[in-house]
Amino acid sequence: MIDLTIHKKTLEQNITKARENNIILPTFEQMRYPERVVPEQVTEKLKSVGLWDLSPLNLFRITWKNEQKADGGLFGRPNFIELPSALTGVSAKIICMVGKFFPTGCHKVGASYGCLVPRLVTGQFNSATQKAVWPSTGNYCRGGAFNSKLLACESIAILPEGMSRERFDWLSKIAGEVIATPGSESNVKEIFDKTNELRETRDDVMIFNQFDEMGNYLWHYKVTGNAVREAFEDIEASSKEKLNFAGICLMSGSAGTLGSGDYLKQVYPNSKIAVGEALQCPTILNNGFGDHRIEGVGDKHIPWIHNVKNTDMAIAIDDNDAMALLRLFNEPAGKEFLAGDAGMSQEDVENLALMGISGIANMLCAIKFAKYYELTGKDVVVTVLTDCSQMYQSRIKELNEIEGTYSGSKASVDFRGALLSAGTDNLLELTNSERKRIHNLKYYTWVEQQGKTAEQLEDLWYHQDTTFEAVQKQADEIDEHIREFNEAVGII
Q1: Are 142 and 108 in contact (CB under 8 A)?
Q2: Nearest CA to 210 among 308, 152, 142?
């Protein structure tokens, strides 16, 4: 469970600092339903604040429901797109939740808030004297650094040196310190090693490790899960028939977003959760290892917060397909092919820029999932576009330099090879024994390396009522702490 023990002296310091910096904290409930429960005096002020401004008011834009406006937007229904069958090659409706319209352009700003705010409102983290350390493969440390800036506390971002240039350029302007660790997407252990070094050598830091922070899981369970439910209800309302929520498909990453699947299974008991990874590093599928190019996924380990016991399928995605589609969706020749030969509308073509590399991989997971289960037009599969192609323009440039100018003939090959030919290979429908095998892989990272105990590992498997299910019930208690914090600050 998330520790909610109060540290009164530090809490008072946090309240004072929040008062000095005009900081009001949103509750989980306000992030779920901002259109009806965010205070009017906040929404009035937001009308003059840009989506990416470094204003504490943008904490209230940590939601899937922001208006798609750069300045002054308020809230509406969840942001999502439906992919046309002309693109996916399947009859099932594939719905993509859009992360671009969060502050920072990525939903990880929500996950990092879910990790930071419980410690802030209990006084476990001292915003005046401690630096918040955000280890990740890119977007989570961006979200953490952004939230830290809004909360007037110092931050340290840790990410592999091989991540996209755009991430480093952005962090250099926001984070107090940026530490680049050896390797790239696949080198998560090196990130952990650096955080352990900081923990042992500095007394002014607190680590917020997304891979074992239940606040990450809880934020997605409460906020993302509800947004997906509302998106499905919108799709069903516009349909002429009753639809079936078939499941959600997500690349593993920190496994936080998979928490939304736990919520959705409670709402739609017959739905399934599929987890994806890179074929070049098939840890879940085959106890494997390797390097790959699907940025934002992270691998060679199973995140502590992954509720493996509730996962139904593992799907591996070839990073060559993800990179090919990044070019197809963003190069002029690719977009021309899609609007012409592929028969897509111009609007649908332009929407493809909402996909970053991991979003493309998520889409491919959903397509393979739909084909495996032979889903029809009455079935809905949901996935998430964590960020957008804006974060990967340097990767597109690199591919041009390596592979040459993108052409219509190359677009045709990529469309048919990476999309229409996507099959049901490299996936596994999980039995209980397969789930247990995957869960047991946590031992090597978390018990042998990161200080967890074997007893804790067994609790995650055998005692759901005191682990994942217990965390799910903590949002209301955290919200009460947030309300008490805001009342003590006295701004609202």
Answers
A1: yes
A2: 142
Q: State the pLDDT at residue 165.
A: 82
Strand partners, 247: 272, 381
Tens of pLDDT along 25-41?
999 999 999 999 999 99
Q: How far apart are CA 436 and CA 457, in angstroms?
A: 11
- The tokens for 81 are 């797109």
* DSSP secondary structure, 65-117, as one string: TB-S-SBS--B-SPPEEEE-HHHH-SSSEEEEEE-TTSGGGSTHHHHHHHHHH
Report how far residue 240's alpha carbon sits from residue 371's, in angstroms, rounded to the nearest whole number: 23
- Condensed to tens digits (0 to 9), the pLDDT of residues 146-166 reads 999 999 999 999 998 987 888
CA distances from 489 to 13, 17, 452 (A): 11, 9, 36
Beta bridge partner(s), residue 178:
157
CA 251, distance to chain mean position in Å, is 9
Contact 491, 60 (CB under 8 A): no
pLDDT per residue over 44-59, tens digit each?
999 999 999 999 999 9
% of the chain with per-residue pLDDT over 90 = 88
Residue found by looking up tokens 């959903």 in the block: 366
CA dist 288 and 451 (Å) reads: 23
At residue 298, does pLDDT exceed 80? no
Beta-strand pair 313-317/427-429:
antiparallel
Query: CA distances (Å), 420 to each of 211, 364, 365, 371, 414, in order?
Result: 34, 10, 13, 11, 9
Task: Say which DSSP state 50 is in.
Answer: B
- Per the prediction, the chain carries an average pLDDT of 95
Longest dimension (CA), the chain: 66
Indicate the range of 114-123, 129-138, 332-341, 475-484 predicted with least confidence. 129-138
- 3 state DSSP class of 142: helix
Compute the C-alpha angle 39/43/47, nearest 5°.
170
417, 324 Cβ separation under 8 angstroms = yes
